[in-house]
Design goal:
- With about 300 residues, this protein is of the alpha+beta class.
- It has 11 helices and 5 strands.
- It has a 3-stranded antiparallel beta sheet, covered by helices on one side. Strands 4-5 form a two-stranded antiparallel sheet.
- It starts with 10 loop residues before the first helix and ends with a helix.
- The structure holds zinc ion.
- Zinc ion (ZN) binds next to strand 3.
Length: about 300
């Protein structure tokens, strides 16, 4: 198990360390050489580099040890300039370790909050099953052909259903005046689109619903819930990185999943499904579903 990297938040944290020196001479001015990197730091005010020959002010750098067991704080560029590859290698080791610890902390915080997360996951699972079942039922009722038409409209963001009606005399008059069409061109009486209905919740149909709920939230959350703190601390670097990244995205993923669930509920409302008759579905094929949705809506209110 790797050792925890010390957390240094203020310059006082450095001063409080018994071996710390604000400035030290190094080789070739003295026999003193670089030892190892202890920890990174980043302050709000600049401090002077601890290499006596440098003293360049900097905001962020590394606490290092020396060959004679002392400590000082140096800028990152100075480390490379004065100590070369041995510093760079140490810096990478500590940077990796700091990142690893930050990821462990992030994943553990999700594990600590798991009971609340599982309540959320269970609610999403219920919604998923409910909406999945309704989607299958609708597909069965209207047929795959019309369902594809509906899906295509959703993908294109065409939420309004329109129909073509003949123009009035006045409308046709100005149409002929402003286009290259003529009343006598034999192409027929001009038409115009009029709004018929807006279908709510179409985002539900265009979203990758299963991916959003099951693949990216429910399944990984259940997997994570089975892990112990030790499992997390001993995770392979790549798994830890991936898990921490996923944890960081959970709030946004939940938000998106909930928005799609809401769209799904908006879509599967009785009066919304009724509008599908305007796309050519006979009302009779929709009636059983509409009736069930209505019952559901009534019992939800009651
Ligand atoms: Zn320096």
């Amino acid at each position: 198990m790797n050792q925890l990297v010390d957390v240094i938040e203020t310059y006082d944290d450095l001063l409080a360390r018994p071996s710390f020196h604000a400035s030290l001479p190094f080789h070739p001015k003295s026999d003193r050489r670089f030892g190892s990197v202890v920890a990174p730091y980043r302050f709000l005010d600049k401090i002077h580099c601890g290499i006596e020959a440098c003293h360049t002010p900097h905001f962020s750098g590394y606490l290092i040890t020396t060959s004679d067991g002392r400590e000082t704080a140096i800028g990152s560029h100075c480390g490379r300039k004065y100590f070369g590859a041995s510093f760079e290698k140490e810096k990478r080791r500590i940077d990796d370790e700091v990142r690893r610890q930050r990821r462990i902390k992030q994943v553990r915080s999700m594990l600590d909050d798991m009971s609340a997360q599982l309540v959320l996951v269970e609610a999403l699972e219920r919604d998923y099953r409910d909406l999945r079942e309704k989607k299958d039922r609708l597909m069965g009722a209207i047929g795959i052909g019309l369902f594809s038409v509906l899906k295509l409209r959703a993908d294109r963001g065409q939420i309004d259903i329109e129909k073509e009606v003949p123009m009035t005399n006045e409308e046709a008059e100005s149409f002929f005046e402003t286009s290259n069409r003529k009343r006598t061109d034999g192409k027929g009486w001009p038409t115009k689109s009029v709004f018929v209905a807006r279908i709510d919740g179409m985002e539900f149909l265009s979203a990758r619903f299963k991916d959003m709920l099951v693949t990216s939230l429910i399944t990984p959350m259940r997997e994570l819930s089975k892990l112990t703190t030790v499992d997390i601390e001993t995770m392979k670097p790549r798994d830890l990185t991936r898990t921490a990244k996923w944890v960081g995205e959970v709030p946004r993923s939940v938000e998106r999943a909930q928005a799609i669930v809401k769209a799904g509920h908006d879509f599967f409302r009785s009066e919304n499904i009724e509008k599908l008759v305007h796309l050519g579905t006979p009302l009779s094929t929709l009636t059983p579903m509409i009736n069930d949705l209505r019952d559901e809506e009534r019992s939800a209110v009651a």
